[in-house]
Amino acid sequence: IREGGKITISESTVFQNCQSISGNGGGIYIDIDLIIGSYIKILQAQFAQCQSYNTTIPNQRAGYGSGIFMIINNWANELDGIDLRGAEYINCFADQGDKGLFIVMSDLQYLCRLGDPKGQYIRSIGYQDEISDMDILKGYLGQPSDFESSSNTDEYLSLQVSPLEPFWSQLGNRWYISSVNEGQNIIACGQKDHPCKTITYTLDRLPSDYTLYDPTTENVNMILLENDLLETEINVNAGTILGQDVAIKSLGGGKGLSAPQNLYK
Fold this sequence. Notes:
Number of strands: 18
Strand content: 25-35%
Strand order of the largest sheet: 4-8-12-13-14
Largest sheet: 5 strands, mixed
Number of helices: 5
Helix content: under 10%
Low-confidence stretches: 254-265
Order of helices and strands: EEEEEEEEEEEEHEHHEHEHEEE
Number of domains: 2
Distance between the termini: 52 Å
Structural class: mainly beta
Shape: globular
Mean pLDDT: 82
């Protein structure tokens, strides 16, 4: 969508059993440049059983965006035309992990925090924080040119891929870490149900990745969901995300304890 182009989808439009066999966007593929007033608005549309499949073709990015795949260029603020709140995703699937929407955007975290409730312009119909499957809404935080570059592998890009909900959720000053089970060292990790894998990675995160992070707090709590002693050397200094005190705690408190207790401070 270029040079002021405008698209509105309404009146109970249904995309059913749509597929992308060797590309992105099972239902819709959108590449939009917002610099000259272009916009995309979905007022009412259902994406049901849509799929996006990966490909064996070399140097081709594929398998993202089961319902909608969107690349956003030159976004500035909430007045720029992205409004997907009328979309509903039902049993969609993509080889790269999303179950509805996938956005590629350099300012993705800021788009996710707009509106009331936060994420208003990209939430799907019926999406509820901490209840809905977070994989329904996912995205890549970075330049579209990096995402499309054949020199970057899917494995490399996965470090910048995240569900969208963590970008607008209130993390505050509590980071959760799971080095045994569910943890992943990817952008915006840290929630209890979206934990990071290592303490070291968490310390190096950028504050802008997290909603309502307070850099003036006395210390930040890093809570270990399991203790396995994989990390034997942890350096806290002015070069980390905090530049201040860190309290590392065990969720269960450790052997013989019933409440979280500092393991390191």
